[in-house]
Amino acid sequence: MFSIEIVRREYPAVRPKAAMFDFDGTVSVIRAGWHPILIGQFLKLLRETPKGKLLSETELEQIAKNSIELNIGKQPIYQFYSLVQLIQKLEGTPSDPEDYLKEYYRSLFEIVRCRHEQLQNGLDPQELVVPGTFDLLAMLRRYGLKLYLVSGTEEEFVRKDVQLLRLTDYFDGGIFGGQKDASSFSKAMIVDKILKENNIAGAELIGFGDGYTETHDVKGVGGFAVGVALNETTRQGIDLWKRDQLLRAGADWIIPDYTDMVQIESKLFEK
Ligand SMILES: [Mg+2]
Ligand 1 centroid to 153 CA: how many Å? Predict the structure, then answer.
C-alpha cells in the first residue's frame, strides 16, 4: 500500500469546487510509449548534424531530454519548434517542424491503433487507465465537483480515446484538447475559463497532472496540484523522472495512482 508523498500542502486551503485533469499519463495510458519514441526521433536527427557528430551519445541524450522536458504537456508541435532550434544550434539544416510532427505521429499511431483495437474487441477500459481512475472520478462527482479534461493532444484524438475508455460522462465541465492553430489553445487558457465560468477562486481548483505544464498552471492561480508520477509502462510505482518534473512545477502531493482512495478522499474533503 502506498501513501501520499506530501510535498507542499497536506490539504487544499478551501474545499475544491472544480477539478482539472490532464489526460495522457494522468487518466489514460493509451499513449504510453510516446516518450521513448520522441527521444529516439530527436537523437536520430541530432546525431546527423555537423556538431552533433562530435558529441557523445550521452551528451546528445541529455540535450534531447532537456528540450523535451520543457515542452511536455503542451501541444506536440512545440517539441518540434524546439527540435528545429537544436538542429540549427548544432549547425544542421532542419526540415519543417510539421514534417517532424507527422513522422512522430506515424510511430505513435501504430501503438495507439493497436490499443484502440484491443478496447474495441472488449478489453476492460480499467486496463488502460491509471489505476483507480474510475473510482476517483466517481468520488469527485459525489462531492459535487465539476470535472474538466484538458489535454495538449489534439482534441479529436482525445475525444476518441475518452469514448473508448467509456469516460465521457464523468467530465461534465467539458473535454478540451489541442487545436490546429496551436496558439488558440493552452492549458492556462482553460484554467482561466474554468475559474470564470464557475465563478470560483483559484484556490477552489484542484489539478491532477503528470507533467510540468498543467501542474505549473494550476499552481499559478493558487490551486491545489496533485502530481501523478505513475510509471506508465508497468502501471505500477513511481517514475522518478516524472516526480522530478512535478516537484519543479510545485506539486502539492506526489502519488503513483489513485488506488489509496480512502486517504485521498479524507485529505481532500474531510479536513
Ligand atoms: Mg500527461
Answer: 9
